[in-house]
Design a protein that fits this description.
Layout lengths: L3 E5 L9 H10 L4 E4 L6 H16 L4 E5 L8 E4 L12 E6 L2 H5 L6 E4 L16 H11 L4 E4 L5 H9 L4 E4 L1 H4 L4 H11 L22 H6 L1
Parallel strand pairs: 1-2, 1-8, 2-3, 3-4, 4-5, 5-6, 6-7, 7-8
Helix pairs in contact: 1-2, 1-7, 5-7
Length: about 220
């Protein structure tokens, strides 16, 4: 199931060839990539998908294809508008934005909820949910949620995870980065909830029980 930092591709915003940006992000800890690039022909898009799968496979990652056609793979991410019911695939995600869209889910495995914050990729798209709104929708979602939209800093990643998101979907922060590996590393680290250190208490001797010879020696 997608978790951590999930990279959405956009070669028009990438500062390097798309495969190079994805490879750099994978080096920084990204293990899930959603291939968009819907303006390409199916042949070109399938060829790109094959290249990205090789990059991800070397790191134990997985490619998800935006749209109902898995491009010879087994994982798709569908828009909120359809198709309904979702096609049969090994992994199916869907974009959602509100409670009504969550209520339409059937056999999907996960969703994205957006926009959490104002986003430069889709300016004016919203209104943003903010972490409080994200938390409310996560509470009623029947499947794990990835937070999406305007997530460009470790603080925002951490806020989404604290709200209950299984991970965050990121586009511009990595695509536009001068150093995608560094940005991916920083964001990935923030996507891991801080471990809670258990408080271990040592039982004390009961006050009413007088020390025995044995426990006097241990004291």
């Amino acid at each position: 199931m997608p978790s951590g930092v999930v990279l959405l591709t956009d070669r028009w915003q990438a500062r390097r060839p798309l495969t190079a940006v994805v490879a750099a992000a994978v080096a920084g800890g990204v293990r899930w990539v959603v291939l968009r690039e819907k303006d390409l022909s199916r042949v070109s898009r399938a060829a790109l998908a094959a290249e990205l799968r090789v990059i991800l496979a070397d790191a134990g990652g997985r490619l998800v294809v935006a749209g109902p056609d898995p491009l010879d793979g087994d994982a798709v991410h569908l828009p909120a508008a359809g198709p309904y019911p979702p096609p049969a695939a090994g992994l199916v995600g869907r974009s959602c934005h509100d409670a009504a869209e969550l209520a339409r889910l059937t056999t999907e495995d996960y969703v994205t909820l957006s926009p959490v914050f104002p986003t430069r990729t889709k300016p004016g798209y919203g209104p943003p949910l903010h972490p409080a709104g994200l938390r409310e929708l996560i509470a009623i979602s029947p499947v794990p949620v990835l937070a999406l939209g305007g997530i460009e800093t470790p603080d925002r990643v951490a806020a989404c995870v604290a709200a209950g998101a299984a991970g965050v979907a990121v586009l511009g922060a990595i695509m536009r980065a001068d150093d995608p590996t560094e940005v991916a590393t920083t964001l990935t680290a923030a996507a891991v909830p801080e471990a809670v250190t258990p408080v271990i208490t040592t039982p004390s001797l009961r006050a009413e029980e007088p020390p025995t010879a044995t426990n006097r020696e241990e004291q």
